[in-house]
Design a protein that fits this description.
Elements (H helix, E strand, L loop, with lengths): L1 H7 L7 E6 L6 H11 L4 E5 L31 H15 L7 E6 L6 H11 L7 E7 L9 H7 L4 E5 L5 H10 L6 H11 L4 H10 L16 H13 L3 H13 L5 H8 L5 H9 L3 E6 L2 E6 L4 H8 L2 H13 L4 H11 L5 H16 L3 H13 L5 H16 L3 H13 L4 H13 L3 H13 L5 H17 L3 H14 L5 H16 L3 H12 L5 H18 L2 H11 L9 H17 L3 H18 L5 H14 L4 H5 L12 H18 L2 H9 L1 H4 L12 H11 L3 H15 L4 H17 L3 H17 L3 H17 L3 H18 L2 H14 L13 H9 L8 H10 L5 H8 L3 H15 L4 H7 L9
Parallel strand pairs: 1-4, 1-5, 2-3, 3-4
Antiparallel strand pairs: 6-7
Helix pairs in contact: 3-4, 4-5, 6-7, 7-19, 10-11, 10-13, 10-14, 11-14, 14-15, 15-16, 15-17, 16-17, 17-18, 18-19, 18-20, 19-20, 20-21, 20-22, 21-22, 22-23, 22-24, 23-24, 24-25, 24-26, 25-26, 26-27, 26-28, 27-28, 28-29, 28-30, 29-30, 30-32, 32-33, 33-35, 35-36, 35-37, 36-37, 37-38, 38-39, 39-40, ...
Length: 908
């Protein structure tokens, strides 16, 4: 709303078109009402309606005008009439005494096309008026809007304001505004899911809660009447029992299905006509996946609404049919459990045994369903509690933390035990709660047990906890313990074995890490186990500097559908794949990978991996010139204090880049300083985050040369036997120290060494940064020709990846050399060649003093102001201006502003 009202305040300077975009229930109506309240005396609301859609000029007829100009001239709906009406409206809006006004168009998908065509004609000349045209648009109904009008809303004449998605923080704030304080973070996530991200639906759910109390089980959340009617009304409108049967079968099966399976569960010999009718009414949606046609429910909340509407006896019958037609034994058992009307210990045993088999192959989501199914057919007992806890643990292992959260309170209500603490610790780790995880694991270890399988699970959790703390010795210690307690094919053994390789890598023992992973590769693993091994191979390959192999392995670890992999492993693969793509210079691919991962991490509530994903996404956006505050809003401020380095270091790196973009080197150093203690690089311990070089650079800029020199010396000493890309980082740190002490030849040699190592390793992004730093140094050493060569190469890379902030820095340095891109000095350049250089996008050679004068003049300073700023005579300013005009082939300050790059770049 603030964005719209901000534009409203500028209407005196010319009319505007604003498109307010948001889905059904996103809060568009609330924004429109708020805007209307703020601008009441000037505001008109025009809304389309189904009944008047076929009436020409019905929408525009709602507009207040002096004359009824919406009437057709000759009784026909001719195009010429619409043009004439638009011209008449424009003439009225252009009158000098016309007050500014805001016109809101709502429900445009229900508006008559004639009115919309008039508005699209009018909009192209609205800038000359004092009108703000605010158009509410729902992307899901855009296809029903007049095509010309729709093109106008997406053209450059329109400004777009998108209502942000309703998220977890919004849900918390909304609940507290309703006096509901016990919702908690996981309850907020459930509210987002249950409302399908719709603000309006979330409000209805909160209003229906009895006594303003949030339920322990999300299944007890009330279903809003609007959602119930949205789902059931189209089904009832078909007046077809077969459509209802197919819808019920889909709700029971829980996902898209092929028609043969649907027919079996629905009890229909031939479901074709019911399917066609349901698709036509928007109840079902057909999908074609790899040549297999499936049918699913169109609306997100349909399954829950339909299940609630089915009689209990009918629901059991449908589950029995689903069990009979199930293609897999574990799915058959889950449906039998759902069909059961009471306890069944025999079935519970079969479910538990199938869950163990699913876990052995890393099919954690299937294992969770089986464990919960076993708990469903068991009477309250310790055995039932164990099955519930095993289901929670399997869901967390699958990475479906958002589905785990509602079970947390149930898990906590179970009597304390070694299993309970181990399971809750697993959830805490994935939510990034280091202290809670450590406390729970300590309690689990202290409890006496002779169950080797359970002790192996504790050791496995400790292995993961140590890994995200990047504690190599502890990773190896706990991994060896987990492996010693279980069978070689047990899930804890395989996972620990893969993570042990990373423990070697954390100590710089890449050869040992590769050998460990080769052992696992010989086992022909499948599912999530193979996915984890591919992730770890990619991780080790990245640490070894083989980025292309890392990309292949990470890409193989990303998918979760094939062989039913784990989302948590996939998210780690997303995070490191994005980082490698960024290092390779593939910024668009890196940003896309990171943002896909961030959406999935948010949906699943896996906090642990979010800072890693955000590191790459934020860094690319910051260098591309996105507003710093906007980018930093996405960052998790709590991550920089986490005991998990996998969260803290990426979060600090983002802060350092944001400070660098602002030119705030105090802030840059402050963001990284804490890493001296928590992420040191020693002979026994390797890091892989490139913060040390950045910290040295920040210290030198701040004048802390002694501290920077000590830091760089230690870094070089501890990495002299490391992989090439690490030695390249150390060489950059050495170069900055040599430069700071005035030893330019030594600095140049170190920069050249780093550049070769980065180039050989295809780390184009790091290589470009070296080129920029080397160019800056050479320019300051007055070696202008060499500086231009380095800076132009860096600029070409940054321009190719869209890094506008760094392009400007290159431009600033290139201007300061006083040379053109081709390295031509001022004495070698005539006025004509300078003009040609300007026309072709090159640089006009100016002396440093001329450059300073030009930079200040294009900022709007007078000659007198420039003279005071530069401590030179006003006549000297004019003298330099005359020379500048001659070099550019221009005659005025206005022309100078058009051809000269201004100095509004961040300081370097």
């Amino acid at each position: 709303m603030r964005a719209v009202l901000g534009l409203w305040e500028t209407i005196d300077d010319g009319g505007r078109i604003v498109v307010l975009e948001g889905g059904a229930g996103s809060g568009k109506s609330s924004v429109l009402r708020a805007v209307q309240d703020e601008t009441d005396a000037f505001c008109e609301v025009l809304a389309g309606a189904e009944w008047s859609r076929e009436v020409p000029y019905a929408l525009i007829g709602q507009l207040r005008t002096r004359d009824p100009i919406w009437q057709s001239v000759d009784g026909e709906c001719a195009a010429s009439d619409r043009v004439q009406i638009a011209e008449s409206l424009l003439e009225e809006l252009l009158t000098e005494d016309e007050e500014k006004r805001i016109v809101i168009l709502d429900d445009v998908h229900l508006a008559d096309p004639e009115s919309l065509q008039i508005f699209s004609q009018l909009a192209r000349r609205l800038r000359a008026t004092r009108v703000l045209l605010l158009i509410a648009v729902d992307p899901s109904t855009a296809a029903e809007v007049d095509a010309d009008f729709l093109r106008m809303t997406t053209s450059p004449v329109s400004e777009r304001v998108t209502i942000p998605a309703f998220g977890r923080d919004d849900a918390l704030e909304l609940a507290r505004a309703h006096g509901i304080y016990d919702i908690g973070e996981h309850g907020a996530s459930v509210l987002v899911t249950e409302s399908s991200g719709r603000l309006r639906t979330a409000l209805e759910i909160l209003d229906l809660l009895p006594d303003r109390q949030w339920p322990t089980d999300p299944a007890d959340l009330p279903l809003p009447l609007s959602v119930v009617r949205e789902v059931l009304d189209p089904i009832e409108a078909t007046e077809s029992a077969e459509v209802r049967d197919v819808a019920s079968a889909l709700a029971i099966l829980g996902g898209p299905q092929d028609l043969h399976r649907l027919a079996c569960v629905a009890g229909l010999a031939e479901p074709g006509s019911a399917v066609d009718l349901g698709v036509a009414q928007g109840i079902f949606v057909e999908r074609n996946s790899a040549g297999r046609l499936t049918l699913g429910l169109k609306r997100p909340m349909s399954a829950r609404v339909i299940n609630a509407d089915i009689a209990a006896s009918t629901r059991r019958l449908l589950h029995e049919r689903a069990a009979e037609s199930a293609p897999r034994e574990d799915e058959r058992l889950v449906h039998l459990a759902a069909a059961s009307a009471g306890t069944d210990e025999v079935l519970a045993k079969r479910l538990a045994e199938s869950a163990v088999v699913a876990e052995r192959y890393g099919r954690w989501a299937d294992a969770a369903e089986l464990h919960f199914g076993a708990a469903r057919v068991l009477a309250p007992s310790p055995a039932r509690d164990d099955e519930l806890l095993a289901g929670i643990d399997a869901l967390a292992s699958a990475g479906r933390v958002i589905e785990v959260l509602p079970w947390i309170d149930i898990g906590k209500s179970i009597a304390p035990s070694t299993l309970r603490e181990t399971v809750l610790a697993n959830v805490a780790i994935h939510r990034g709660q280091a202290a809670q995880a450590d406390d729970l694991l300590s309690r689990a270890e202290a409890a006496p047990t002779d169950d080797d399988g359970l002790m192996a699970q504790i050791a496995l959790r400790r292995t993961l906890d140590s890994l995200v703390r990047w504690d190599g010795p502890k990773v190896r210690e706990w991994a060896n313990r987990a492996m010693s307690l279980g069978h070689s094919d047990a899930p804890a053994n395989v996972e620990s074995h893969a993570m042990r390789a990373l423990g070697f890598a954390a100590q710089g023992k890449i050869v040992e890490a590769v050998e460990d992973l080769d052992d696992l590769g010989d086992r022909h693993l499948t599912g999530a186990q193979n996915q984890r091994v591919r992730l770890c191979i990619g991780w080790v390959s990245m640490l070894a500097g083989d980025l292309r192999k890392a990309v292949r392995e990470f890409e193989a670890a990303v998918p979760t559908q094939h062989e039913r992999g784990s989302l948590r492993i996939s998210l780690w693969a997303h995070g490191w794949l994005a980082r490698v793509q960024y290092l390779l210079g593939e910024w668009n691919e890196g940003l896309r990978t990171a943002e896909i991962g961030l959406r999935k991490a948010d949906d699943a509530n896996i906090t642990l991996v979010a800072p890693l994903l955000n590191w790459t996404a934020a860094e690319i956006k910051l260098w591309r010139g996105h507003p710093v505050d906007e980018v930093m809003r996405r960052a998790d401020s709590g991550a920089i204090l986490s005991d998990y380095l996998a969260m803290q270091v990426p979060a600090r790196m983002v802060r350092a880049v944001a400070a660098d973009v602002r030119g705030d080197h105090d802030g840059r150093a402050a963001a990284l300083r804490a890493l001296l203690d928590v992420d040191p690089w020693t002979q026994e311990r390797n890091s892989f985050w490139p913060w040390a070089t950045e910290f040295v650079d920040a210290l030198i800029i701040l004048g802390h040369s002694d501290q920077a020199r000590q830091m760089a010396t230690d870094f070089v000493a501890n990495t002299h036997e490391s992989r090439s890309h690490v030695r390249a980082l150390a060489a950059v740190a050495s170069a900055r120290i040599s430069q700071d002490s005035g030893d330019i030849p030594a600095a140049q040699e170190s920069f050249s060494q780093a550049l070769k190592l980065f180039t050989d390793g295809q780390q184009d992004t790091a290589a470009a940064r070296v080129l920029l730093s080397r160019g800056q140094m050479l320019r300051r050493a007055n070696r202008r020709r060499d500086a231009v060569e380095s800076l132009v190469r860096a600029r070409e890379f940054y321009e190719g990846v869209g890094a506008t902030v760094l392009v400007k820095r290159c431009d600033q340095e290139l201007r300061a050399t006083g040379m053109s891109w081709r390295g031509m000095s001022e004495s070698e350049t005539t006025r004509t060649s300078a003009k040609n250089s300007t026309d072709s996008g090159g640089y006009v050679p100016l002396t440093p003093q001329e450059m300073s004068v030009a930079d200040l003049v294009v900022q709007g300073m007078t000659n007198a102001e420039v003279s005071r700023k530069l401590f030179i005579a006003e006549k000297t300013v004019q003298y330099h201006l005359t020379h500048i005009y001659g070099k550019f082939g221009i005659r005025s300050r206005t022309e100078l502003a058009a051809v000269h790059l201004s100095g509004d770049v961040p300081p370097v």
